[in-house]
Amino acid sequence: MELDRQSYLNRTRTKEMRQPIQAWSFPDSGAQVCMINSKMVDAINGAGLVTAASLQIKDAGGHNLPVDGAIFIVITRKDRITGLPKRTHQMAYVCQKTEDLVLSREAMTSLGMVNDIDDSEAPTASVRLISSSAPTSG
Fold first, then answer.
1. What average pLDDT is seen over the chain?
2. pLDDT digits (tens, 9 = 90+) for 24-66
3. Which residues contact 90 (CB under 8 A, 6 or more apart)?
4. What's 62's DSSP letter?
5. Which of 20, 63, 78, 95 has the greatest count of CB atoms below 10 A from its CB?
6. Is the separation of the CB atoms in 121 and 135 below 8 Å?
7. Given strand 101-103, what is the order of strands in its sheet?
8. DSSP 103
9. Rounded CA gap, 73 and 21, in Å?
10. Collapsing DSSP states into helix, strand and coil, what is residue 65?
11. CA–CA separation, 22 vs 137, rounded Å?
């Protein structure tokens, strides 16, 4: 993982911005966004690049997760079949409650960790009235 230097072209580029790190990630196919803790942001020398972000994120239990901002990163993973690197550019929200980098479903799909699942093509649920206790007019 490293800073997405392309997203920060208008800023002064330094050697410190080229600090990729190897880190554990938590793949969460239910996550809609990537999340990162501030220690990882510091490790890639990105503390000064965190931008303001106001997004309400809830964990699986419905608890609010405080967001301290967002940063643009590149996540790289070696393809298990070809051995070639796969990359995805993501905006990660800085959250103190996360221990590892949390990968969203989109990031996991881009990295080839899960198949692309299109929920819009899933069969729709239908409900049919079998009986009713409501009085009928007649």
1. 81
2. 788 888 889 999 999 999 998 888 889 999 888 988 888 889 9
3. 4, 34, 72, 73, 74, 75, 104, 106, 107
4. S
5. 95
6. no
7. 2-3, 69-78, 85-94, 34-36, 101-103, 25-27
8. E
9. 11
10. strand
11. 71
Residue with structure tokens 């980098």? 101
Encoded tokens for 127: 């409900």
Helices (H), the chain: 38-43, 105-110
For tokens 């964990």, the residue is 59
Confidence class for position 12, pLDDT limits 50, 70, 90: low
CA nearest to 77, candidates 103, 47, 38 = 103
Measured between its terminal Cα atoms, the distance across the chain in Å is 70
pTM of the model: 0.75
C-alpha–C-alpha distance, residues 73 and 7, integer Å: 9
